[in-house]
C-alpha cells in the first residue's frame, strides 16, 4: 500500500479498526478500570466527608418530613418561579456545553489517529454521545434529589414518608429529563456550527429571563402576583414543565402536571434521538478543538489551576473582537497602568461586573447601617463582594503572573510590578464606590464612610494581588503533615487558595464594624491607621510573592 | 505513456480565510500535480498552516474554492480522508499503545489486510524506528515521535501528502533522511504540499515555492527565485 496515481476506493475498515483497537487496549483495561475506580472512590470519599452530615439530615427529613412552618405558604407561592429559574439555569449550562466541550467528544489520541481515516465517524462518535447522555441522565437523577430535599426540609414534603418519596421521585424524573433534553439540544448545536453563534447571542437574554423569574419568586414570596403568571411560567417551556410535578406534590396548583411531565419526556426523547442521528456529522474541526480544550482543562484541574480552568473554558467558548484602542503613554511609569486599563476596557463584562459588585457592597453597608444592624456579618459580606470586585479588576496582574515572560522586556523588576498593578484597580474602586459613598456621607452628614473607603479599597486590592501572585501549586501540599486533630493537607490547600481574601476581608471586617458600630472619631482613626498598615503589609507580601514567582 | 502536463490533483483558487476581523490569509492560488512538490514558506503567523488546513479539508475557506481530483472539496470529505495524508499537527499518542501498534491501527483503518505487518515493518525501517517498535510513545524523543508521525503516513495509501513543517524536531542527519524520503514519494507520483521553515529542505524537494508574509503571497516561483525574497 503506497503512493498511487489512481483514485483509491474507500475501504470498509470500521469493524476491523475498532476490533483491533479494543484488542490492543484490552491488556491495559485493568489499569484503566483501576484508575476509574480510584476516581469514583475519591468522589465518594469527598462527598461523604464534606456532605455526609447533610445527606444524613436529608434522608432523615425524607423519612420524617418536617411539618410546615409559618413561612411555608410563602415558599409555596415562590416555588413555581424559583424552580423554573433553576431549571432554566440548568438547561442553559447543559446547552452551553456544546460551545466548549461536548456532548460529542473524542479523546485526543482518537482525534489524532482515527479522525482522518476512512473509518465511519458515526461508529466512533455515537457511542461517545450515548455515554454522555447516560452520564447526564444519572447526573440529572442525582441532582434532582437536591431540590426535593430542600422542599421537604422547608416543610413542603407533606405529612408522610410516602408523600415525600413521591415528591422526590417527581423531582428526580423531571431533572433527569431536563438533563436529557439539555444534552440532546447540546448535541444538535454541536453538530451545526451556525447554532453556536445563536446560542452565544441568546445567552444574555436567557440570563435576563432567569433574573426576571428570580424577581417574580421574590414578589411571590413577599406579595401575591396574579395566579395566571405562575400558569404562564409553568407552561412557557421545558423549564416550566419540569417544575409542575414538584409544585403539585408540594401542594401548589398544577393540576395537569402529568401532561407537563409527559411533554418534557417527549421533548427530551426527541432531542436525544435527533442528536444521536446528528452525532456522526459533528465537524472534525470542532472535535479537534474540544479534545484540546478537555486536555487543557484536565491538566488545569489536576494542578488546581483555577485560572487555567477559566482560560480553557473562555478560550473554547469564543473569542472577542478587539475594538478598543488607547494611545500608549509617554512616561514609562504609566506603561503598566495603561496596559491594565486596556485589558479591562477590552473586557467590559469584567469591568461592569466589578462595578456592580462594588456598588452592591456599598449598598449592603448602607442598608445594614440604615437598619441599625452594622454587625460583623453584613460588613464581612460587603467586604467579600468588594474583594471579588478587586479580584476581577486585577486582570493585568493575573496575566503577568501566568506567564512572567510577558513583562520580561519591561524596565521594571518583577517585584515592583505588583505595586504598579494596584494603581488601576484602586482608582476604579475609588471612582465606582466613591460616588455613592460621598452621597451617603453627604446625606447622613457622616464623613467616616469616605475615610474608611480610602483605606478599604487598597486593602482589598492588595489582598487580591496576594492571591494573584501565589506560588505554583505543588502536589506535595496534598501530603500535609499529621497533627493531633488530623492531617493538615485540607487546611493547607484551602489557605493556598484563599490566603488573599482571608488576609484582607477578615481583619478589615473587624476594623470596619468596630469603626462604624461606635460614634467616636478615635475608632475611625484607629481603623484607618490599621487599614493603611494592613494594605502596606499585604502589598509588600504580594510584591515578595511576585519576586519569587519572577525568579522561578 | 505519462501525460507531460497532468492536470492538478489539488487546486486552490482565490482561497482566503478570515477569523472575525482578522485576515489570516489573503486570496491565494496554488495547484499541485502528481509527482510535484509545492513548498509554502514564511515567518511564523504568515498563514502557512491556515493554507495547509484548508488544502487538507480541515478548514473551509472564507472565499475561493478548493478542487480535489476535479471536484469541490467539502469539510471532512471522505475521499480526502482516504487519499490525502496529513503530517504535522499530530501531537498526541495513545499512551498505552506501542509504536508498532500505532502504525498497525492506521494501516488497518485504511483497509490494510494481510499485508499489514509487512507495511508496518517497512515503515519502521524507513523511518529508522526498528529499535523502538515495542516502545511506548512516552519513552520516545521528540524527533522519534516526529518519525512515528511520518511512518504513519507511509502505512496508508496516498495520492497527496500535506506536510506542515515535517522537519520540526529533527536533527540535521534526520532532515537529510527526510529530504530523501520526500523525494522518493514525489518520484513515486505523490503530490506534495509542504510548509517549511527550512530553505535547504525546500530547495532539495520543492519544484515550486510560495512565500507568504502576513497572510499574503510575497513571492513565488522556482525555489531559487522564491527563496531570494525571504527576508
CATH architecture of the domain at 10-90 and 158-227 in chain B: 3-Layer(aba) Sandwich
**Mind describing the biggest β-sheet of chain A?**
2 strands, antiparallel
Straight-line N-to-C gap of chain A: 51 Å
Instruction: State the low-pLDDT regions of chain A, or none.
Output: none
CATH secondary-structure class of the domain at 10-90 and 158-227 in chain B? Alpha Beta
Number of helices of chain B: 8
Alpha-carbon Rg of chain A, integer = 27 Å
Number of helices of chain A: 21
Written overview of the protein:
- The complex is a heterodimer of chains A (552) and B (231).
- Chain A has 552 residues and is an all-alpha fold.
- Chain A has three domains: 29-61; 64-296, no CATH class; 332-551, no CATH class.
- Chain A has 21 helices and two strands.
- Chain A has a two-stranded antiparallel ribbon.
- In chain A, 37% of the residues are buried.
- The mean pLDDT of chain A is 88.
- By secondary structure, chain B is of the alpha/beta class.
- Chain B has a domain at 10-90 and 158-227: 3-Layer(aba) Sandwich (Rossmann fold).
- In chain B, the strands form two sheets. In chain B, strands 6-7-8-3-9-10 form a six-stranded mixed sheet, sandwiched between helices.
- In chain B, helix 4 packs across helix 5 (142-154).
- The termini of chain B are far apart.
Amino acid at each position: 500500500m503506497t503512493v498511487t496515481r489512481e483514485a483509491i476506493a474507500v475501504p470498509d475498515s470500521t469493524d476491523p479498526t475498532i476490533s483491533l483497537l479494543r484488542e490492543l487496549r484490552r491488556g491495559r483495561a485493568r489499569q484503566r478500570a483501576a484508575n476509574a475506580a480510584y476516581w469514583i472512590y475519591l468522589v465518594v470519599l469527598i462527598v461523604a466527608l464534606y456532605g455526609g452530615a447533610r445527606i444524613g439530615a436529608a434522608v432523615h427529613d425524607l423519612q420524617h418530613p418536617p411539618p410546615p412552618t409559618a413561612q411555608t405558604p410563602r415558599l409555596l407561592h415562590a416555588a413555581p418561579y424559583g424552580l423554573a429559574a433553576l431549571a432554566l439555569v440548568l438547561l442553559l449550562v447543559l446547552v452551553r456545553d456544546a460551545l466548549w466541550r461536548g456532548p460529542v467528544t473524542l479523546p485526543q489520541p482518537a482525534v489524532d489517529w482515527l479522525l482522518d481515516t476512512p473509518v465511519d465517524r458515526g461508529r466512533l462518535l455515537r457511542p461517545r454521545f450515548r455515554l454522555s447522555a447516560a452520564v447526564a441522565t444519572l447526573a440529572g437523577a442525582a441532582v434532582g434529589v437536591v431540590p426535593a430535599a430542600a422542599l421537604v426540609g422547608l416543610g413542603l414534603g407533606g405529612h408522610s414518608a410516602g408523600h415525600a418519596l413521591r415528591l422526590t421521585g417527581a423531582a428526580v424524573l423531571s431533572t433527569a429529563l431536563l438533563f436529557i433534553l439539555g444534552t440532546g439540544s447540546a448535541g444538535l448545536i454541536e453538530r451545526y456550527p451556525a447554532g453556536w453563534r445563536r446560542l452565544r447571542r441568546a445567552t444574555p437574554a436567557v440570563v435576563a429571563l432567569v433574573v426576571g423569574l428570580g424577581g417574580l419568586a421574590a414578589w411571590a414570596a413577599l406579595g401575591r402576583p396574579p395566579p395566571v403568571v405562575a400558569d404562564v411560567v409553568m407552561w412557557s417551556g421545558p423549564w416550566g414543565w419540569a417544575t409542575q410535578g414538584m409544585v403539585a406534590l408540594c401542594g401548589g396548583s398544577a393540576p395537569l402536571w402529568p401532561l407537563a411531565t409527559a411533554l418534557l419526556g417527549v421533548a427530551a426523547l426527541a432531542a436525544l434521538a435527533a442528536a444521536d442521528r446528528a452525532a456522526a456529522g459533528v465537524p472534525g474541526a470542532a472535535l479537534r478543538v474540544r479534545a484540546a480544550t478537555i486536555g487543557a482543562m484536565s491538566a488545569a484541574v489536576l494542578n488546581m489551576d483555577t485560572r487555567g480552568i477559566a482560560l480553557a473554558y473562555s478560550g473554547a467558548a469564543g473569542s472577542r473582537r478587539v475594538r478598543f484602542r488607547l494611545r500608549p503613554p509617554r512616561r514609562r511609569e504609566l506603561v503598566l497602568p495603561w496596559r491594565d486599563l486596556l485589558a479591562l476596557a477590552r473586557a467590559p463584562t469584567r469591568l461592569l461586573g466589578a462595578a456592580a459588585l462594588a456598588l452592591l457592597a456599598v449598598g449592603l453597608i448602607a442598608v445594614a447601617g440604615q437598619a441599625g444592624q452594622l454587625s460583623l456579618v453584613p460588613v464581612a459580606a460587603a467586604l467579600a463582594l468588594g474583594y471579588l470586585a478587586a479580584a476581577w479588576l486585577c486582570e493585568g496582574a493575573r496575566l503577568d503572573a501566568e506567564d512572567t515572560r510577558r513583562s520580561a522586556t519591561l524596565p521594571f523588576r518583577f517585584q515592583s510590578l505588583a505595586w504598579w498593578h494596584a494603581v488601576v484597580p484602586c482608582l476604579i474602586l475609588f471612582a465606582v464606590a466613591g460616588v455613592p459613598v460621598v452621597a451617603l456621607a453627604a446625606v447622613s452628614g457622616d464623613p467616616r464612610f469616605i475615610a474608611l473607603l480610602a483605606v478599604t479599597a487598597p486593602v482589598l486590592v492588595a489582598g487580591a494581588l496576594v492571591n494573584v501572585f501565589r506560588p505554583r501549586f505543588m502536589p506535595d501540599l496534598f501530603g500535609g503533615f499529621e497533627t493531633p486533630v488530623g492531617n493538615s493537607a485540607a487546611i493547607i490547600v484551602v489557605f493556598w487558595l484563599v490566603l488573599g481574601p482571608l488576609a484582607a476581608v477578615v481583619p478589615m471586617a473587624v476594623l470596619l464594624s468596630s469603626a462604624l458600630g461606635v460614634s467616636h472619631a478615635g475608632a475611625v482613626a484607629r481603623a484607618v491607621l490599621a487599614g493603611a498598615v494592613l494594605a502596606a503589609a499585604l502589598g509588600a507580601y504580594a510584591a515578595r510573592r511576585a519576586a519569587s514567582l519572577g525568579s522561578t | 505513456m505519462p501525460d507531460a502536463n497532468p492536470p492538478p490533483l489539488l487546486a486552490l483558487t482565490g482561497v482566503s480565510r478570515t477569523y472575525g476581523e482578522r485576515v489570516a490569509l489573503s486570496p491565494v492560488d496554488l495547484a499541485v500535480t502528481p509527482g510535484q512538490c509545492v513548498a509554502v514558506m514564511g515567518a511564523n503567523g504568515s498563514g502557512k498552516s491556515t493554507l495547509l488546513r484548508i488544502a487538507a479539508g480541515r478548514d473551509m475557506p472564507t472565499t475561493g474554492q478548493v478542487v480535489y481530483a476535479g471536484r469541490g472539496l467539502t469539510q471532512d470529505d471522505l475521499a480526502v480522508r482516504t487519499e490525502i495524508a496529513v503530517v504535522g499537527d499530530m501531537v498526541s499518542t495513545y499512551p498505552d499503545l506501542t509504536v508498532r501498534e500505532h502504525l498497525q491501527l492506521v494501516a488497518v483503518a485504511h483497509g490494510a489486510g494481510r499485508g499489514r505487518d509487512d507495511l508496518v515493518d517497512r515503515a519502521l525501517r524507513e523511518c529508522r524506528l526498528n529499535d523502538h517498535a515495542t516502545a511506548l510513545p512516552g519513552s520516545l524523543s521528540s524527533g522519534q515521535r516526529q518519525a512515528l508521525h511520518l511512518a504513519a503516513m507511509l502505512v496508508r495509501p496516498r495520492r497527496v501528502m500535506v506536510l506542515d513543517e515535517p522537519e520540526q524536531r529533527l536533527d540535521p542527519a534526520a532532515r537529510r533522511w527526510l529530504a530523501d524520503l520526500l523525494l522518493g514519494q514525489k518520484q513515486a507520483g505523490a503530490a506534495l504540499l509542504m510548509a517549511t521553515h527550512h530553505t535547504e529542505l525546500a530547495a532539495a524537494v520543492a519544484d515550486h515555492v510560495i512565500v507568504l508574509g502576513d497572510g499574503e503571497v510575497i513571492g513565488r516561483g522556482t525555489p531559487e527565485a522564491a527563496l531570494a525574497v525571504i527576508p
